[in-house]
Amino acid sequence: MSSVAIVPAAGRGERFGGAKLVADVGGVPLLDRTLRCLLDGGVEHVIVVMPPDGRFDSVRLLSDPRVMVVVNPDPSRGMFSSIQTGIEVAQGHPMLVLPGDMPFVSTSTVRTVLAAALQSVDVVVPRHDGRRGHPIALPERLKSHVVQAPATTNLSEVLKASGVPRIEIDVQDPGILRDVDVKGDLS
After folding, report:
1. Total of domains in the chain
2. CA 68, CA 82: separation in Å to the nearest integer?
3. What is the CATH number of the domain that holds 81?
4. Contact assessment for residue 122 and residue 164, using Cβ atoms and an 8 Å cutoff
């Protein structure tokens, strides 16, 4: 079975001032950097969950044949609804979840999480300096738990309620903790 990643990218980026996912990060659109770390890290398929009016023309990797775009019809319900939208169409094991606004995750971290998840039927989470981050790897057996959960919950609550054990892997990558909320987060 092929590995797959879900990239929630349907938020409005209001705190950033809009257009966050196409912001320049070292000469590359932010979302391209997030997608590149997943693809270069060995993930075989990536599902990007966008809003109904999402236009990311400058994001080149959206046209990569390994990348599928799906639409969250109501992203105002929050990020978990985008995770549900992506996981509902996902086919594969493991299923990694990496928010679109996390362009600083290293390829080696993706490889490490993916390798551990391929050897496990548990949830795999990277940890840096004692703090858990992303990408999170979910076993395929959690798909129905996520899809059927109320959209008002969050992934952490669903994972806790599922009873599936969690494996934490220490990584030397502060990028697993670094998302972009405001323009100052890019410096």
Report:
1. 1
2. 14
3. 3.90.550.10
4. yes
pLDDT in tens, the chain (187 residues): 699 999 999 987 778 877 889 889 999 999 999 999 999 999 999 999 999 987 788 999 999 999 999 999 999 888 999 999 999 999 999 999 999 999 999 999 999 999 999 999 999 999 999 999 999 999 999 999 999 999 889 999 999 999 999 999 999 999 999 999 888 888 8
What is the distance between the alpha carbons of residues 52 and 57, in angstroms, rounded to a whole number?
14
* Strands (DSSP E) found in the chain: 4-8, 24-25, 28-29, 45-50, 67-71, 95-97, 123-128, 131-132, 136-138, 166-170
Residue holding tokens 């994972």? 159
Domain that holds residue 124: 4-179
Report pTM: 0.95
- 121 inside domain: yes
